[in-house]
Amino acid sequence: MVHYSFKDKAVLVTGASGGLGSALVKILADRGARLIVTSRSEKAIQELIQRLPETTQVKYFTADLSVKGEAEKLARNAISAFGVVDCLFNNAGLGYFALMEETSDENIRYLFEINTFSPLALIRILVPHMKQRRSGRIVNIVSAAGRVPIPSVGVYGGSKSALAVMANTMRLELEPFGIDIINVYPGTIDSSFEENALREKNRSGFCPTERCGEPKLRIAQQVVTAAEGKAGEVWLEREGKRLAVGSLIWPKLVDRRIRRLRDKVVKNEPMKQRRWRLLQVESAIACNLKCVMCPWKEVRDKAANRGIMDQKVWDAVKQHLPEVASLDLTGGGEPLLQPNLTEWVADGKAAGCETGFLTNGLLLTEKITLNLLASGLDWICVSMDGASKETYERIRIGSDFDRVCENVARIARMRSGPAPKIMINFVLMRMNFHEAEDMIRLAARLGADQVNFKQCEVIRGEHGKGYGLFASEETKEIRRLSKLLSRARKLGRTLNIETTAFPFVPTELPVCAQDPRDSVFVRFDGSVAPCINLAIGGPTSFFGTEVIMPTIHYGRLPQQDLLELFETVTCKFYKQRFQERVQAYEKTYMDALTGGSHSGLDKLRDKASKAMPEAPQGCLVCHYLYDI
User: Fold this and answer.
1) What residues does CATH 3.40.50.720 cover in the chain?
2) Among the listed ranges 223-232, 249-258, 360-369, 614-623, which one has the minimum average pLDDT value?
């Protein structure tokens, strides 16, 4: 139902010669509005006016809204044009593509003048005249970027957020005077927005839809329809609203959704998505240690070719690296036993992959470290499950605590910048939990950047069994452990050490971090699987219950091509099933939130989980799917 009519109303439209602005002007002219249009280009405005119906009443003014005082001058001119301004469309706006650390004070102020201060100045001058008539309407074109932390558009989002918040406050303040304020979130529009945007370091814009946004005329029609409705906020793009609500209620979900975009933006890569987000390559299942909790002992003993990946397998992988975003050269063994590891790291970097691996650190000699640094390694993670020599060497049998510490410290000393990022994996067990805080202190002393607190979650037969601290439900002991772990992570923040950790009790996820939709695992023998857990099946323990983990392979390299294997029936099943689970989970959750549901988060999560189709057989008994 139409709440407001533009017929014979005096309507001021800023940014009128732009893509959305010109479409708005045309539609408003068709509605019979008396138009006041403005742009910084007189030629562009005149060309726009020539395309309007001859019966249109229209006045135009040139105004550069990046200049302080221009908005006030424009507002006074607009009032004089028809003696009144019934409605204002704050449409003028400018983009800015830059990481926050790259932004300049000059560009920030320039952008805020156009996107925030000038629209606010127009409102503040026009409102007293509207209050006298107890009638008026203000329509602000804002953005979901003002509600969602989208990498490289932080300043733009901030400028639109500031306008939206102030306008919403004025909406409540001016409601008694008959003045309606509407904030419209249009989503992505197929216009020249990105072309005209400011940018640092030649950062390209990005378009989140295949069509580079909705047609501007269609969006303009929806904006005018929203402007004819009730005061408040109107979202034209449902996904933008979901992300905005999620960023407040469930920020981790939103972070996961935009992480890939973040990674591309930070590296200033083209926005074209690579086929594989992650390619995990088991460069070796052979190992130089005998760790107490290792699940791969029997598999390693039976491995062909001494458990070392053959160059022919790597060659079959290498040709597809330009389609890989992240390359992890880790599997069930020690990558540094692979004689070609440094060359393979260099291959990954040459193809534009973020590349790294997990090691026990014992073989990180000075020569190998120099070669790895020269190869461009992005990250290295060292397994250290004890902060003291006694605890560490009781777990990592055959290693040398002091040597590993020196090897880690050497990397930190020799790197010339933040890369490679140095991480430490600390597998939590009863025999080492008391050293969690000590590990944070040790990491700080060694020059590491991050400590990952992991659960001992992978079990094959008796190997790895009984070491896990997690359980199917919360207990008094788990609450105690959680509290101790929180203290360690708090210490990490104090000492500037990043930390990650997993829960002690299960929460079923739509898909695990491995995410077979866009990742694969390549065993040392060339077998291709969804992940390492499914690559090597066998008897396992799932929250205390004895089960069998199936072995799932798509095929084998180099006999088959990796791209061919990614399109096999089995692979398609995993990709499709997890896509269905993610869609069902997010839709149920976000629909409840955007629909005004007052259910608790636990109930919403439970409802979303029940809406998902069942996970594939092996994943049903994998602790990873339950966030352990």
Assistant:
1) 10-236
2) 249-258
Return d(Cα 582, Cα 588) in angstroms, integer: 10
Helix (H, G, I), strand (E, B) or coil at 345: helix
Q: Where are the alpha helices (DSSP H) in 175-207?
A: 193-196
Q: How many Cα atoms are found within 13 Å in the side-chain-facing hemisphere of 21? A: 28
Rounded Cα distance, 140 and 197, in Å: 19
Is the N-terminal amide bond of 530 cis, ω within 30° of 0?
Answer: no
CATH class of domain segment(s) 278-505: alpha beta
> 159 — alpha (psi -120 to 50), left (phi > 0) or beta?
alpha
Mean pLDDT of the chain: 89
Backbone angles phi, psi at 340, to 5 degrees: -100, 15
What amino acid occupies position 123?
I
Task: Find the angle CA(172)-CA(178)-CA(180) to the nearest 5 degrees.
Answer: 55
- Using the structure block, give the residue that is written with the tokens 């006298």: 132
Give me the percent of the chain exceeding a pLDDT of 70.
91
From 48-57, 285-294, 395-404, 483-492, the region with the lowest mean pLDDT: 48-57
Every domain range in the chain assigned CATH 3.20.20.70: 278-505
Phi then psi dihedrals of residue 397, to 5 deg: -70, 125
Do residues 513 and 586 make contact, with C-beta atoms less than 8 angstroms apart?
no
State the pLDDT confidence band at 314, using cuts at 50, 70 and 90: very high
Residue 623 CA to residue 619 CA, distance in Å, equals 8
228's tokens: 């004819």
Answer left, alpha or beta for residue 521, where phi above 0 means left and psi between -120 and 50 means alpha. Answer: beta
The contacts of residue 190 (CB under 8 Å, 6+ apart) are: 19, 211, 212, 213, 214, 215, 216
Question: How many H helices and E strands in the chain?
Answer: 23, 25
Helix runs in 420-538, H state only = 436-446, 476-494, 532-535
Tokens representing 620? 């049903």
CATH for 10-236 is 3.40.50.720
Q: Which residue blocks in 197-293 are alpha helix, DSSP H?
A: 216-227, 238-249, 251-267
